[in-house]
Write a structure and sequence with these properties.
Blueprint: H1 7-19, E1 24-29, E2 34-37, H2 39-45, H3 65-78, E3 82-89, E4 95-106, E5 112-121, H4 123-145, E6 148-154, E7 159-162, H5 164-170, H6 182-186, H7 188-201, E8 207-215, E9 219-231, E10 237-246, H8 248-290, H9 296-321, E11 328-329, H10 330-345, E12 352-358, E13 362-363, H11 365-385, E14 393-402, E15 406-413, H12 430-441, E16 445-449, E17 454-461
Parallel strand pairs: 12-14
Antiparallel strand pairs: 1-2, 1-5, 3-4, 4-5, 6-7, 6-10, 8-9, 9-10, 11-13, 14-15, 15-17, 16-17
């Protein structure tokens, strides 16, 4: 059916319909004039007349107007659809971002009549986009200035973000790395190494490992790599962040520290070896000097002194031979000290049975030295005075480690026991005075249990710093 309405009538109908919608609508003539804008758009612009004529460019932001006019004229010349974004001034003077879409109008005979278009306010979207772009700019600024490479990998093992350093290393044009599979970028050899770590990260586990990264012009460079999972509110993994630091200097420093420690360890071993040697010389001198002493009491003093020197020398020998130069292994030390004492004080060693039960713990030299000397005195006393006239029996040594760095030393024998009314806390002998001094040094306590035989228990703690006897 032929359209019998005149063009003016059609525009009137269009205007009536357009004014009833809140959308911004406009229509122009073939001469590029706005022959019509609907009422909502007129209110937005703050004009009373809905026929703007050729005034429409004055409402466009001065910075946007030249490009808008040029694009509009080019579209009109080609009678083509156009879409463009620009800022439009509102009645209160504020500029709002608009997206303008124009569609050419033609008569039934194909004659170009102008455009019909619509405007949509996209200011909030533009602000959101600008805010997003600003965040991306800041993210890019931060990651590009970091002395590390940063990437984001999604659950399909594709790169979604990479900082400048990583893109330069890979030799891929900026921006083109995004979307590429990790396997394709790093190569099969590297992928085989990192794949187990990727799988763990995609399960939600934070992963840190060390590997060598091929860096242009530098070759393989040691790096510390961290995968930090990215999870949504429900805990589902969306991908993971990759952070890689060059640890060349760290490795070099570690190597220097290891070399320095090795040198110091050699030096400490040499010191312990020489101290042990010097103490052995002192022990030998005491032994030689004792040959010129005929009185039994004096000979016993020399022998006791010689055993104390040997006890100290044994400690340095233990440290010299130990893998840990900071701690003396007590069990090994006691196992070697006690037989020395037995051979020194007992002619017939078969008549004395030894029971040694020591926890396998290590203590510092500052604790081991007084502990060894206490043990030397207590066992020596048991061997010298507990089994007179060939009496048989046994000597028990127990050393237990308790919580809090505390120890319990028990030396007991099945011998004749202490003399009646003997007060060990006020004994005048040098050996027991030395024991009391050492107990105080270790902040310990000394307790004597009732017979049969003799049992002495000492509780003490490990020293955190050297103390002088």
């Amino acid at each position: 059916m032929a359209d019998t309405t005149r063009p003016g009538e059609r525009e009137q109908w269009f205007q009536m319909i357009a004014n009833s919608t809140p959308a911004f609508l406009w229509m122009s003539s073939a001469e590029a004039e706005n022959s019509f804008i609907n009422t909502p758009l007129a209110r937005f612009l703050g004009v009373e007349d809905t026929a703007l004529g050729n005034r429409w460019p004055e409402f466009i932001h001065p910075e946007d107007a030249p490009a808008v006019i040029e694009e509009f004229m080019q579209a009109q010349a080609a009678e083509s659809v156009f879409t463009m974004e620009f800022r439009l001034r509102r009645h209160d003077g504020e500029y709002r971002w608009m997206i303008d879409t124009g569609t050419p109008r033609h008569s039934q005979q194909g004659e170009f009549l102008g455009y019909a278009g619509s405007l949509i306010d996209i200011t909030e979207r533009k602000h959101a986009e600008e805010a997003l772009q600003e965040r991306e700019r800041l993210l890019r600024l931060v990651t590009d200035t970091m002395p590390a490479f940063v990437s984001y990998v999604d659950t399909e093992e594709r790169y979604r973000f990479n900082n400048r350093i990583y893109e330069e290393w890979r030799g891929i044009p900026v921006g083109e790395l995004a979307g590429m599979p990790v396997r394709e970028v790093v190569g099969e050899e590297t992928y085989a190494v990192i794949r187990p770590y990727i799988e763990r990260a995609l399960t939600g586990e934070a992963v840190t490992y060390e590997t060598e990264v091929l860096v242009p012009h530098l070759g393989k460079v040691p790096h510390s790599i961290t995968y930090a999972p990215d999870c949504d509110a429900a805990g589902k993994v969306r991908g993971f962040v990759v952070l890689g630091y060059d640890i060349t200097e760290q490795k070099r420093t570690e190597a220097q520290i290891r070399a320095s420690l090795a040198e110091k360890e050699v030096l400490l071993r040499e010191i312990h070896h020489r101290v042990k040697g010097n103490l052995q010389v002192v022990s030998s001198l005491l032994n030689l000097q004792s040959r010129y002493v005929t009185e039994p009491a004096a000979q016993e003093v020399f022998r006791d002194s010689q055993n104390r020197v040997r006890a100290m020398a044994l400690l340095h020998e233990q440290l010299y031979r130990s893998d840990d130069l900071a701690h003396v292994p007590l069990a090994s030390y006691v196992q070697k000290l006690i037989p020395q004492l037995v051979h020194s004080y007992v002619a017939d060693t078969a008549r004395i049975r030894l029971l040694v039960d020591v926890d396998d713990v290590g203590v510092t030299l500052e604790t081991a030295m007084p502990c060894g000397l206490m043990l030397n005195e207590l066992v020596s006393n048991a061997l010298k005075h507990g089994f007179p006239q060939g009496r048989t029996g046994e000597v028990s040594i127990k050393l237990r480690a308790e919580d809090g760095g505390r120890f319990v030393l028990r030396v007991s024998d099945t011998g004749v026991g202490l003399p009646p009314h003997f007060d060990i806390h006020h004994a005048a002998t040098m050996g027991m005075q030395l024991v009391h001094t050492l107990v105080e040094q270790l902040h310990g306590t000394l307790h004597v249990e009732d017979g049969p035989g003799t049992t002495i228990e000492i509780r003490f703690g490990e020293l955190d710093y050297p103390e002088r006897i």
